Structure formats: structure tokens, C-alpha cells
Automatic annotation (TrEMBL):
Catalytic activity line of the entry: a 4-O-methyl-thymidine in DNA + L-cysteinyl-[protein] = a thymidine in DNA + S-methyl-L-cysteinyl-[protein]; a 6-O-methyl-2'-deoxyguanosine in DNA + L-cysteinyl-[protein] = S-methyl-L-cysteinyl-[protein] + a 2'-deoxyguanosine in DNA
BP GO annotations: DNA repair; methylation
Region spans: Disordered: 1-22
Classification via Pfam families: DNA_binding_1
ATP-binding listed as a keyword: no
Name recorded for this polypeptide: Methylated-DNA--protein-cysteine methyltransferase
Superkingdom assignment: Eukaryota
Keywords: DNA damage, DNA repair, Methyltransferase, Transferase
Alphabetized GO MF terms: methylated-DNA-[protein]-cysteine S-methyltransferase activity
Source species taxonomy: Eukaryota, Fungi, Dikarya, Ascomycota, Pezizomycotina
Gene3D superfamilies noted in UniProt: Winged helix-like DNA-binding domain superfamily/Winged helix DNA-binding domain
Family the UniProt entry places it in: Belongs to the MGMT family.
Organism of provenance: Lasiosphaeria hispida
Cited InterPro entries: MethylDNA_cys_MeTrfase_AS, MethylDNA_cys_MeTrfase_DNA-bd, MethylDNA_cys_MeTrfase_DNAb, WH-like_DNA-bd_sf
EC class name: transferase
Amino acid sequence: MLPTNNTPSPEPPSPSTQITTSSLPPFQKSVLLLLLQIPPGRFTTYAILATHLSTSPRAVGNALRRNPFAPQVPCHRVVATGGLLGGFKGKVGGRDGADHPRLAEKRALLLSEGVKTWGREGRVTGRAYDEFV
């Protein structure tokens, strides 16, 4: 029998540590760090994030589609201004892409956190989170 090591395994680094120590571009780091402020059961929009960062919603979306830390860094909590799911993992939703399997995954993650959706497109309901610091 091999001797056992009673030393506990080190805790994995927190998502914020993973982001800040990564080789990601500074803008992408700033977008991903904001996502950590969105509580489970809440959502925000690409436009709200863009306003906070003084950039465009498209720039935010481009940063999110390359999120290497999902779902721990919750890009699934970001939706389009009208409540449509938008995109997820590089795939865009909307009327034509509403049934894409990746958007079904995004919808399932949101539902598991308590976000309500309606309609075939899975529009989210409620007030978007905008209390970023």
C-alpha cells in the first residue's frame, strides 16, 4: 500500500485570478471581469456592458465569444437589448438561429439560475442588471 499524503489539494484559482493572470488582451479581461459582478439569476445586455466600458455592443460580443472560462465566467448572462438571447459560444441567435443547440444551452443555464424566458426565441423577462462598479 502506498503512503497517502494528507496535504489537501490546493484550491483552483478564482475566476478573477484566472482572468487577470491570463494572456488575454486587456479589453477582453475588462469585459470578463465585469461578468463576475452579475449575480446568478440576473442578466445584463451587451449595450449596458458597452456603455459601462465606453465601447460598442459588438466589441463586447466579440470579447464574450472568445471567453475561455465559461461558464464560470458567466457570458451566458448577457443578452441582446430586446431580451433575445443573442449569441453564445460564437453562434448568433435571433429569429434564424433561435433553435441553435448552443442557444439551447444558454437558455438552459439561464433557466437553471432562475431567469425567466418566454417565446420560441427564449426572450428573457425582468430588469437587466446594471449596477456595475
